[in-house]
Amino acid sequence: MLTATPSHHPLERVEISLGDRSYPILIGRGLIDEAGTFEDVPSSSDAMIVTNTTVGPIYAERLARSLAPRHRRVHTVALPDGEGYKTWETLNQIFDALLAQGCDRKTVLYALGGGVVGDMTGFAAASYMRGVPFVQVPTTLLAQVDSSVGGKTGINHPAGKNMIGAFYQPRLVVCDLDTLATLPERELSAGLAEVIKYGPIADVGFLDWLDARIEGLRQRDPEALAHAVRRSCEIKAEVVGRDERESGLRATLNFGHTFGHAIEAGLGYGTWLHGEAVGCGMVLAAHLSARLGLVDAAFVARLTNLIERAGLPVRAPQLDATDNSGRYLALMRVDKKAEAGEIRFVLIDGAGRAVVRSAPDALVREVIDACSCA
Amino acid sequence: MLTATPSHHPLERVEISLGDRSYPILIGRGLIDEAGTFEDVPSSSDAMIVTNTTVGPIYAERLARSLAPRHRRVHTVALPDGEGYKTWETLNQIFDALLAQGCDRKTVLYALGGGVVGDMTGFAAASYMRGVPFVQVPTTLLAQVDSSVGGKTGINHPAGKNMIGAFYQPRLVVCDLDTLATLPERELSAGLAEVIKYGPIADVGFLDWLDARIEGLRQRDPEALAHAVRRSCEIKAEVVGRDERESGLRATLNFGHTFGHAIEAGLGYGTWLHGEAVGCGMVLAAHLSARLGLVDAAFVARLTNLIERAGLPVRAPQLDATDNSGRYLALMRVDKKAEAGEIRFVLIDGAGRAVVRSAPDALVREVIDACSCA
């Protein structure tokens, strides 16, 4: 699964196996500045770099230079930055830019930024002229280890997160580890939430490694980051290859997300970062797992400690002054995993294995009340 | 390909063969009122009938009764009627209704109406929670013979028609011929444009039949309508089965549409009906075919006469007072079939066969000038 380039820094490669929709994830340093990174992307007259106003000024021109051999014209559109802008209005800015430039249906879209840019660019690519190719160039840890891989794309609706979107696979994912050097600390921690997730649901050994290296990761030790990104991508690739459209196994990747989505929606998108909500959501889900007798208290304590050391919140915020747990329940009932109004939780059934199941409302309320900020 | 029901009226069945996305088109009378019509649709808690304010009052309750055995709750949302409403804002009314009713990702959408309802419902189904099942129940001739079949879904953008959408196949198409009895005359003619199209591109014998039966079709002779719908669906099924995502052959179904889309966009969506623009567009494309030496003048005259007898416009409208043909060209350059700014026309190369190719601007201008209203 790993290959080394002849150059001085190692290039790692993880394959997503989905038949004729298979594609590689390239992981390494300085990838944005190398034209060779993109040599397997289809050539076309036009390319559109979709980025945001934070990331664009740093990387867009450098990426455009590397794309010049493959596309005659490389356009750029910079969206406003933040989860609060993951809306139809912002998505439409991509369509407006594509149409203003006369982009045809061979045009390749490049998502340069974090999860919001990746999700919106992917959905724009899925929908523009009923589908054009796209490439993910994630510049946040969260996007590199999770959202850029696997083809989930979409936008938010006031009533729920990622309610409108498509399963649409990129042609290539480029994780340039150098982009993590400039990432704000809060976003690094948010990304670590999605890294930590892979331990309890799939790999106890990785959880042990994280316990030992969490401080190094926060200090951006390049070797530790490279391992964390690669191992996360390997686990995600394995799961997505077996269940692309989330008919079963893939739902386990949403560990912490049912509670997390309620927190994000309840506070208003963008108040907490997605990764922060997922970090806290994993604590809640671990407590629920324990109350259902699936894990012991030591596991809950260990996971909570790791999440806290990653710089993430572990106490659930108040979403409603009079009926806080009721508000959580109401928000979780519109989660995409819910079926006929029954909330489906991803729970840990012994560390290293996840199950998807429902739980009595009363028990869920107890967990929320026990874990909430006063 | 045909089966007969034990009941007094014949039920015809045309299969769309697309592997695990295959589905039947049912053609017959009184189908909306029979629960058996829908017996192969997946059962679920919720269903949503998406219709418009014209069709809904006539058929929505009847359809809901037939769906009762398959879905515990059948909701309805009625959109404003007309091509001018094929926008994101209207699409969002579908998402709002789905979320307001707590519809989960097993919910089945039913498109009850013409092409606009079908295209928007299909795109809503493709995008809601990244994809839910849907059924087409077309109530216009145009939708029965063309737009409801083959999985093209989408909405318009101010800069071009159907610019945003998805290839997403329905589970079933139900063509209830009785719904054509109440169709306004102008819409019946618009539907005939798409019926006529199948002759020149695929079946000269069908063109002969149309020449003989066009008056009967306008008088809604049930037997003639049944044959026209079935033969149109058969040809479309054959083409879509061989080229679902329009990498080649399927583009020939757009005969008349390159000019037609320019007319629709240039006049403002909804001024001419889609079928009217396609009818006139076929006349222009036939003239262009003749000027390129692909067909003779007699064919152009014969096709123009048939289109006129179908009650459709055959003279191109003025889109610009100072540079009319330049305006047509500019609008056609943003057509989805255009590549690197080169317009791709569907032309007739001997009646019964279509080719997709470019043409010199000067020749296109001559055709537009020669065929325009003074």
UniProtKB/TrEMBL annotation, chains A, B:
<feature type="domain" description="3-dehydroquinate synthase N-terminal">
    <location>
        <begin position="77"/>
        <end position="189"/>
    </location>
</feature>
<dbReference type="GO" id="GO:0000166">
    <property type="term" value="F:nucleotide binding"/>
</dbReference>
<keyword id="KW-0057">Aromatic amino acid biosynthesis</keyword>
<feature type="binding site">
    <location>
        <position position="257"/>
    </location>
    <ligand>
        <name>Zn(2+)</name>
    </ligand>
</feature>
<keyword id="KW-0028">Amino-acid biosynthesis</keyword>
<feature type="binding site">
    <location>
        <position position="161"/>
    </location>
    <ligand>
        <name>NAD(+)</name>
    </ligand>
</feature>
<dbReference type="InterPro" id="IPR030960">
    <property type="entry name" value="DHQS/DOIS_N"/>
</dbReference>
<feature type="binding site">
    <location>
        <begin position="179"/>
        <end position="182"/>
    </location>
    <ligand>
        <name>NAD(+)</name>
    </ligand>
</feature>
<comment type="function">
    <text>Catalyzes the conversion of 3-deoxy-D-arabino-heptulosonate 7-phosphate (DAHP) to dehydroquinate (DHQ).</text>
</comment>
<dbReference type="GO" id="GO:0009423">
    <property type="term" value="P:chorismate biosynthetic process"/>
</dbReference>
<feature type="binding site">
    <location>
        <begin position="81"/>
        <end position="86"/>
    </location>
    <ligand>
        <name>NAD(+)</name>
    </ligand>
</feature>
<feature type="binding site">
    <location>
        <position position="194"/>
    </location>
    <ligand>
        <name>Zn(2+)</name>
    </ligand>
</feature>
<feature type="binding site">
    <location>
        <begin position="115"/>
        <end position="119"/>
    </location>
    <ligand>
        <name>NAD(+)</name>
    </ligand>
</feature>
<feature type="binding site">
    <location>
        <position position="274"/>
    </location>
    <ligand>
        <name>Zn(2+)</name>
    </ligand>
</feature>
<dbReference type="GO" id="GO:0046872">
    <property type="term" value="F:metal ion binding"/>
</dbReference>
<dbReference type="InterPro" id="IPR016037">
    <property type="entry name" value="DHQ_synth_AroB"/>
</dbReference>
<feature type="binding site">
    <location>
        <begin position="139"/>
        <end position="140"/>
    </location>
    <ligand>
        <name>NAD(+)</name>
    </ligand>
</feature>
<dbReference type="Pfam" id="PF24621">
    <property type="entry name" value="DHQS_C"/>
</dbReference>
<dbReference type="GO" id="GO:0009073">
    <property type="term" value="P:aromatic amino acid family biosynthetic process"/>
</dbReference>
<dbReference type="InterPro" id="IPR056179">
    <property type="entry name" value="DHQS_C"/>
</dbReference>
<dbReference type="GO" id="GO:0003856">
    <property type="term" value="F:3-dehydroquinate synthase activity"/>
</dbReference>
<keyword id="KW-0479">Metal-binding</keyword>
<protein>
    <recommendedName>
        <fullName>3-dehydroquinate synthase</fullName>
        <ecNumber>4.2.3.4</ecNumber>
    </recommendedName>
</protein>
<keyword id="KW-0170">Cobalt</keyword>
<comment type="similarity">
    <text>Belongs to the sugar phosphate cyclases superfamily. Dehydroquinate synthase family.</text>
</comment>
<keyword id="KW-0520">NAD</keyword>
<comment type="pathway">
    <text>Metabolic intermediate biosynthesis; chorismate biosynthesis; chorismate from D-erythrose 4-phosphate and phosphoenolpyruvate: step 2/7.</text>
</comment>
<dbReference type="GO" id="GO:0005737">
    <property type="term" value="C:cytoplasm"/>
</dbReference>
<keyword id="KW-0862">Zinc</keyword>
<feature type="binding site">
    <location>
        <position position="152"/>
    </location>
    <ligand>
        <name>NAD(+)</name>
    </ligand>
</feature>
<feature type="domain" description="3-dehydroquinate synthase C-terminal">
    <location>
        <begin position="191"/>
        <end position="338"/>
    </location>
</feature>
<keyword id="KW-0963">Cytoplasm</keyword>
<keyword id="KW-0456">Lyase</keyword>
<dbReference type="GO" id="GO:0008652">
    <property type="term" value="P:amino acid biosynthetic process"/>
</dbReference>
<keyword id="KW-0547">Nucleotide-binding</keyword>
<dbReference type="InterPro" id="IPR030963">
    <property type="entry name" value="DHQ_synth_fam"/>
</dbReference>
<dbReference type="Pfam" id="PF01761">
    <property type="entry name" value="DHQ_synthase"/>
</dbReference>
<dbReference type="InterPro" id="IPR050071">
    <property type="entry name" value="Dehydroquinate_synthase"/>
</dbReference>
